[in-house]
Amino acid sequence: MSLSFDFVQPQPEAAADRVTLFADVILPLPLPRLYTYRVPFELNDQVVVGGRVIVQFGAKKTLSCIVAAVHETPPTLYQAKYILEFIDDAPVVTQPQLKLFRWMADYYLCTLGEVINAALPSALKLSSESRVQLHPAFEPDNHPYPLGDQEQKVVDALSTGEEGKSMTFTEVGELLGIASFHKYIKSLMQKDVVFLFEHLKDKFAPKVVKKVRLAHHYVSEAAIEQLFGQLASRAKQLDVVMRYLQRVPVYQSEHANHRGMDKAALTSAPHLSPSAVNTLIKNGILEQFDQIVSRFPLDEDDAQANMHFTLSDTQVEARDAVMREFQTKDIVLLHGVTGAGKTEIYIDLIKQALDGGGQVLYLLPEIALTAQIVTRLMRVFGSRLGVYHSKFSDNERVEVWNGVLSGRFQVVVGVRSAVFLPFDNLALTIVDEEHESSYKQYDPAPRYNAREVALMMAHFQGSKTLLGSATPAVETYYQARAGRYGLVSLTKRFGEAGLPEIVLVDTRKSREQKTMLNHFTPELMAEMESKLAQQEQVILFQNRRGYAPFINCLDCGWIPKCTNCAVSLSYHKQAHELRCHYCGHHDRMPAQCPACGSRNVKTVGFGTEKIEDDLKVMLPQANVQRMDLDTTRAKNSYQQIISDFEQQKTNVLVGTQMVTKGLDFANVSLVGIINADSIIHYPDFRAHERAFQMFVQVSGRAGRKGKKGKVIIQTGDPEQVIFDKVIRNDYLEFYEYEITQRREHGYPPFMRIIRLTVKHVDVTVGERAARLLTQELVDRLGREAVLGPEAPYIFRIRNFYLQEITIKLSREHTVLKAAKADLMAALDVIRDQKEFKQVRLAADVDPM
DNA sequence: AGCACGCCGACT
DNA sequence: GTCGGCGTGCTC
């Protein structure tokens, strides 16, 4: 701003106050910096921080990106290109979000572009390759909104050719012959004429329900009167019409008739004839139409009926304690045993937060976000509830995103990535099962933990956060003990169900005595038989999928290995394949040893598939179902397995971790952990914690609603200290033991860990890069802060050789910040060496 | 992440 | 002689 003097008259033609604006944008690419584009002067008033703009990036790419800042400082080193177009007139990313994204990039050592990439549903990230397609529900001659000329051109182009034809943005631009065509696409989207998708594979497959309504010329009392006369001799048809009028208040509002009712409710109702319904449709009395429905249908009547439920005394007490803690603390840990009824407490707190006018985010791990819980929440919160699930299509995610922006959804229940939703007025954040490792994203950066991100987001927005778990993460409990988090314990199980009896069975002894029946001890076998005889159900937990972790030729010792990874191939019997669990590589199962031709090839070890297989032979009367990654890959198979078990169509459920989470089955009286040792003896400082959590969680599946359950843990080493704590379900004792270990060995929560992985196709280059990086780190951070480099147990994945360096840092903020700067500098040293140009470096902050 | 520019092998 | 391999460097 320059000084101005009174006597200097403004020159009218010079437009002295003409400001040139520049926008710093976040490109959805892993680039370290923001890029500055120039705002076309006539569009100055359209720039919104948090809105999307279209820019040309590089020679031929056009991209949408997020405006992070607007200013008047022209770049000095280059000529800024112009922004091509503005997509939004209001932010799609809110201010608190931008702040959060910056924090994430900083904390997790990644770029803002990577954060944006993980955060935005891909339909919000437009590029010249984005595609449009006519909406399946669009009817050209029965469309409520008029279309402009340009819009009509697009619709015409999309309707000629085969069904479901799509065009890229580039093609739309060519068709219209103008550069600024996005506004037409946007308008067409708002009118539900077209929808967007990014790749050919994510085409929209909406769920359509057939509905019927009364033809519009019957919607008046007189007309209906006349209709009754007309149908007087056709009793079946009359019944249908009567039922329709009963269910749909046609007289009260024409709108109600327009919405109609489910056809299935008429055709499948008792005493009503489906053919009568069809005759009515044929005669033009009823009309049939399709409606696209959400995955979680809400029955309005249900919503009213279930609004109110009462908390038990224990629950009221716990809720009040949480609220008391919230008066002085922003974060509260609700430590409640499985089955203590935490969900009801959450619902109660959500209601209060909503009454106060704030938004609520309720995070759940993926396996716990079931239709059961969603329907339950739907009943209470109805259309104010948004659901964000990873199995949803991109269009559905955008709908939730926009719903949060517009205020339509005040509560969102969702998985890890729901922390990215554009809240601006969060009052309450709930992270249920906060210890769950699935909150942590591993592979593409940002390698974030949604629990930590949620805490930071809540902090930025002044929201309270409730962390819930039966087996809190050691780090979390430590914070609560230290008084930084409030702590509320809920120890009584709901409905008086006692804790299950937990029994250890020594597999080593059984093996010596040769009493093992395949992988079952006689004790587990006998108990299963007895429970099944009493018509009760059994869950078996085996933390390894497939049939066997490897196969072995008994004559020459040949073991098939993955060609891309340093692992043996697992045998999958059903698929008759050898598979790599790390890269997806698979071969046909050979009929004989390819090395020596012997047919003496045996499977070694066992996974869920073998357990299932053995049981089918050993317990022929039982119905055995397996639930693991392999059997739940298809869209609804998880739900199918659960409901079959719920309805007791299956008696034994064998599965991996999937069976440990949040499933409430009233009739399960026995849980078996087939091999506890593989879980405990894992080369990682969190092995005991994970084992404790797993055992307690899976034990929680046994015995509910008054029945006392039994848990049998098979182990070759029953003396392990951890079992003692599991048996007595003594979290506190486990915690005390574990925290001492952590303090002694300098692990979290006392130190912060950053794991660097160096990857290269050539072992020696990778090793050299890792050694140099270690040296650079030692020079900057000191010898004691750096461990490694070391090849991990699985030292090659997807043809990349791995080296790991572990950095241990003090948790002090200033130290951490300086250390990260040092770390980045050390990484740059590697990147600058020609020899290491092909080295891939990944930083994982707080690895799990 | 793309994509263009650029320098060395098997083909018309 | 050219077409094309993918190494590396840049994108406001």
Automatic annotation (TrEMBL):
GO cellular component, as recorded: primosome complex
Binding site for Zn(2+) 1: 553, 556, 593, 596
Cofactor remark from the record: Binds 2 zinc ions per subunit.
Cofactor(s) recorded in Swiss-Prot or TrEMBL: Zn(2+)
GO biological process terms, semicolon-separated: DNA recombination; DNA replication initiation; DNA replication, synthesis of primer; double-strand break repair
Annotated ranges, domain Helicase ATP-binding: 323-490
Enzyme class per UniProt: isomerase
Catalytic reaction annotation: ATP + H2O = ADP + phosphate + H(+); Couples ATP hydrolysis with the unwinding of duplex DNA by translocating in the 3'-5' direction
Protein name: Replication restart protein PriA
